[in-house]
Amino acid sequence: MTRVSSDPIDVLRSRTSEKWADHPADVLPMFVAEMDYPLADPIRRALHEAIDRGDAGYVSSHNPLAAGFRGFAQRRWNWDLNGARLLTTADVSMGIVEILRRVTEPGDKVVITPPVYPPFFDLVAEAGASVLAVPLREAENALRLDLAALERAFASGARAFVLCNPHNPLGHAHTRDDLETLARLAVVHGVTVISDEIHAPLTQPGTTFTPYLSVSAEARASGFAVHSASKAWNIAGLKCATMVAAGEGPAGILDRMPSEVFWRTGQFGMLASAAAYADGEDWLDGVLEAIARNVESLDRLLREHLPEVRWHRPDAGYLVWLDFRGRGWGSDPAERILEEARVALSAGSEFGEPGAGFARMNIACSPELLDEAIRRIAAIPPGERGQSQS
Ligand SMILES: Cc1ncc(COP(=O)(O)O)c(C=O)c1O
Q1: 183 and 161 in contact (C-beta within 8 Å)?
Q2: CA–CA gap between residue 2 and residue 327 (Å, rounded)
Q3: What's the 282 CA to ligand 1 centre distance in angstroms?
Q4: pLDDT tens digits, residue range 261-289?
Q5: Which residues approach ligand 1 with their CB closer than 6 A?
Q6: Which CATH number fits domain 43-279: 3.10.350.10, 2.40.30.160, 2.60.40.10, 3.40.640.10?
Q7: Dist. CA 380 → ligand 1 center (Å)
């Protein structure tokens, strides 16, 4: 397996994408979901070769992405996509909006489950629908789908549900049981489920990602999935994602999408994603190992320096959801952490109301940076500002 480690800090600081360009040099950026690792060799090769050929035109409809993704899904998740319809577009967000546009009328209610990936609020609005928040519920000391509340929301007239599987910011991969129940409820109430599965390739060995469309005929009849190589191989700026439909109704909706939806796919994104799915698994396994090592370090660092902070190890991904409420830093700990520790986290309140008092941390970085960030954060005194100095 390829051993993957962070690029040196001077290389990271020379990057011009959001993570390393948005804050001054004294800030450790641990917010937006970009990784500090170098690109996988198969991706570098594919992109260099394309540049050498001057191959930067429009994506051809005869491209290798669908076959690559089908193979990856079969090997990784035992998910047979042979009968499924795949349609490529620029990114997962656009895929969600394009599907919502076709399954809702203006003003219809679309369910999301906060705390959840903040742009979901905007994507529902962009599609002309309105958000119906059904917060996750605390079960066995963890946050899970509230199936009873989802049933009530579906019965009240919601038309669609944007599911996050695995869930950002928790990194939780929903169980087959929960997904089966969800699919049954969706069919009973005529709700379309759009399963955002962008974090799925980052599922840790020993935990299980269940593709929503694999759970039942009911899921396939009423659901879509949206996938991308962009999070797992760190190529979000290249713009490529794949909508998946495995039932007759949803496949018809993909077939009727205007061809412009496909034309928005980035050529470099398609080439890089195809290389990732076909030849990038060794690198991906190396990344998973690097993340797992950081999860262990974080556990140790938090126990030692910030024992009041509660969190759960993610099943998938490199984002961790930290509960700072026991530290007494109020509803927006990320603001204070940025000002006083010069560490940029994502503010919990952006993930919806249940996010108050929380912050999300991106740990796809070097162990040294993680160590430094936790030490800096732990140096902020507990309690309200000024309180503990008196
Ligand atoms: C759950 C989830 N969906 C979608 C996205 C954005 O994907 P894209 O850039 O393909 O729109 C992210 C980015 O972090 C994400 O975490």
Answers
A1: no
A2: 39
A3: 23
A4: 999 999 999 999 999 999 999 999 999 99
A5: 33, 91-93, 117, 164, 168, 196, 198, 228, 230-231, 236, 241
A6: 3.40.640.10
A7: 31
The helix/strand/coil state of 28 is: strand
* Ligand 1 mutation pick, 18, 93, 194, max ligand atoms within 8 A of CB: 93
Alpha helix locations (H) across 264-311? 267-279, 281-305
Locate tokens 């529902």: which residue?
124
Look up the CATH number of domain 9-39+281-389: 3.90.1150.10
- Which of 327, 326, 325, 316 lies closest to 363, judged by CA? 316
The SS3 assignment for 196 reads strand
Concatenated DSSP letters of 229-250: STTTTT-GGG--EEEEE-SHHH
pLDDT band at 390 (very low <50, low <70, confident <90, very high): very low
The model's pLDDT over 190-199, given as tens digits with 9 standing for 90+, comes to 999 999 999 9
